[in-house]
Amino acid sequence: MSPTVLTADPGAGTVVRIHGRHIGDRIYRGAITFFAVCVPLLVALVAWEIAVAGWPTFRHFGLSFLTSSDWDPVKDRFGAAPAIYGTLVSSAIALVIATPLAVGVSVFLSEFAPRWMRQPVGFLVDLLAAIPSVVYGLWGIFVLLPLLRDPVMPFLRDTLELGSTPFFTGPAYGPSMLAAGLILAIMVLPYIASVSREVLLAVPRAQREAALALGATRWEAIWRAVLPYAKSGIVGGIILGLGRALGETMAVTMLIGNRQEISASLLAPGYTMASLIANEFSEASSDAHLSALMAVGFTLLIITIVVNAIARWLVWRVGGGAASKAL
Amino acid sequence: MTAGVIRTQRPSARQRAVGERARKSLGRRRAVNGVMLGVLATAAVITVLPLLFILGHLVTKGATSLDLAFFTHMPTPVGEAGGGMANAIVGTLIIIGLAMLFGLPVGVGAGLYLAENRGAWLANSVRFLSDVLNGLPSIVMGIFAWQFLVRPMGHFSALSGGVALGVMMIPMIARTTEEMVRTVPTSLREAALALGYARWRTGLTIVLRTASAGIVTGVLVSLARVAGETAPLLFTAFGNQFWSTSVTQPIAALPLQIFNYAISPYDDWHRLAWAGALVLIALILVISIVARVATRARFDMGSGD
Q: What is the number of domains present in chain A?
């Protein structure tokens, strides 16, 4: 741009090109910077819109919105405790079932399985993540629920006599916390498995070879040398799965039974924050009701952001960039 | 055991006892090894089983209810046999198209920025917030789009559904774009610049074009992921029993239709829900397989993925 450069250059065409190039570069840089800045702006916009819409509820009910279990849209009384409880419990069931399986399958694939088996089985596990939530829900309604209603729930309650604990009491309807937890377990499994696999692959070879050279069996090498190294990354994967489970909507809405009640029994129906919104949002007529649902959405948003941040930090600690690709 | 080889004297009773114990414990350790191998293999089998069950049910229940009318006819009222989901299939394609319209430029642009400004504080925070956006529950995206578009417009619309899904695509596209652009050799970029190409032309015609196959894959994968999303469409696209292709009106979508039919009490609608689920899965699988083939053809990466 400086005039001295222009006078030093004899060709007029060059001057034009330098000039044009400068403008083009500016536009290009400006455009991609604009698109990049869009991302933080969108996050802020999402949080802001929902926070503003939910604000009247938070102001009116304060903390009791999170602790009260009185949800009565007709009388404009809102307490989200059953939904929060249901969200946490269904996700916990999912993690308890999915974690050993997911870690097991990824250890098997990365350490034991013959080479020809790794890719096809890995592909099948990844395929679980490709099935839409609503299809899981459909399968759950017509296959899983009848199965739970007849042999599984009575078996757990009566044959195994788990009915004597408070967790397996009451009639076996089918739609229940247990059903939601089971379907969530299948749904979060591929996420935990793929992060675990990436993390295990990021463990240095020397770590395994050193253990084997000291006379460890392959399992001992895995248990004593590989898993401790990969531990925080795997935990990160589990927490990432938790993040998915907390926000999962359709399949849970179709299977959990949607009842505003806190019950210790896993055979009883419950509610989650996401399914509460999915069920009531389009029927909400009063502003107070809408605002309460927005407040539930905002609570869910904050919880998932915190959970995801923790997960990413843990995975990033093990594998740096390489392992966090799977997230 | 190795200690015994070096010694010339006969091992004492105590040493023999130690050796005996080591041999016994080795047997036990080997047994544990074998058992754990079995446990892990079982975990793998149990993991794959639900997938096979679900796909099996989808194919058997879906295929028997699937016919030509499903693709060409409109939904019929309760009690009337037959009918299809022609409007929902078209609606899903329209919504996905709209989502691409919003998600593609922002995602690719942000990805280019991230790849070209590594380490800058803005790039780091954009990357972090893109991960945050990726982790947001889809239902939250739905109520956001409702509050942001449906409420001011006063009615549900295909457009608002497209925006909700488009926002969900952005972080996925940005991430793959960044990764793919980073695999473009610096020498290629330098060669273009040395030949007198402007930075913007290098960026768009050399770097982006070289990375295009990978980016296309990323876009397809994100498309496959949002194509089955239901929650963001509940209060935005809303669904429609009639034929509509207008972007400002409520529009039918395959996942919404499956949901409504699945929770209905009518057998005939259940049948259509299974057929719809099969079509949706087929759509997603085709997109994913095209994505895989696209990567293979250009990069020939062999084993690692």
A: 2
Please state the separation of Cα B156 from the chain's center in Å.
26
pTM reported for the whole predicted model: 0.88
Q: What's the whole-number average pLDDT of chain B?
A: 88
Q: How far is CA A203 from the centre of its chain?
A: 24
Same domain, B7 and B150: no
Task: Classify residue B263: in a domain, yes or no.
Answer: yes
Residue among A195, A166, A182, A155 nearest A92 (CA) = A182
B100-146 pLDDT per residue, tens = 999 999 999 999 999 988 888 999 999 999 999 999 999 999 999 99
| Total count of domains within chain B | 2
pLDDT at B6: 56
Same domain for A50 and A74, yes or no, is no
Nearest CB neighbour to B198, from listed A24, A42, A134: A24
A248 min Cα distance to partner chain B (Å): 7
* Chain B residues closer than 8 Å to A32 by CB: 109-110, 112-113, 116, 203
Distances A207 to A211, A229, A230 between C-alpha atoms, Å: 7, 8, 11
Interface contact flag, A50 B108, Cβ < 8 Å: no
- Give ipTM to 2 decimals: 0.88
Collect all residues with Cβ–Cβ distance below 8 Å to B35 and sequence separation of at least 6.
none
* Cα distance between residue A297 and residue A53, in whole Å: 10
Q: Residue B82: which pLDDT band, with cuts at 50, 70 and 90?
A: confident
Q: Are residues A50 and A184 in the same domain?
A: no
| Minimum CA–CA partner of A139 in chain B | B54
Q: Name the pLDDT band for A11 (thresholds 50, 70, 90).
A: very low
Q: Of A39, A61, A83, which marks where a domain is finished?
A: A61
Judgement on whether residues A140 and A245 belong to the same structural domain of the protein:
yes
pLDDT in tens, A137-168: 999 999 999 999 988 998 988 888 888 888 88
Residue B42 with chain A: CB contacts under 8 Å: 104
Q: Across all residues in chain A, what is the average pLDDT?
A: 88
Q: Locate B235 and state its tokens.
A: 């209060």
Chain A residues whose CB is inside 8 A of the B142 CB are 277
Amino acid code (one letter) for B170: I
Contact B116 A121 (CB under 8 A): no
CB-based contact B74:B84 (threshold 8 Å) = yes
Which chain A residues contact residue B177 at CB under 8 A? none
Alpha-carbon separation of residue B276 from A36, A120, A259, B262 (angstroms): 37, 27, 28, 10
**Residue A101: pLDDT band by 50, 70, 90 thresholds?**
very high
- Residue of B2, B42, B92, B140 to mutate, interface with A, max A Cβ within 10 Å: B140
* Distance (Å, whole) CA A40 – CA A25: 24
Contact A239, A307 (CB under 8 A): yes
Of B112, B131, B143, the CB nearest to A32: B112
Instruction: Name chain B contacts of A45, Cβ cutoff 8 Å.
Output: 144, 148
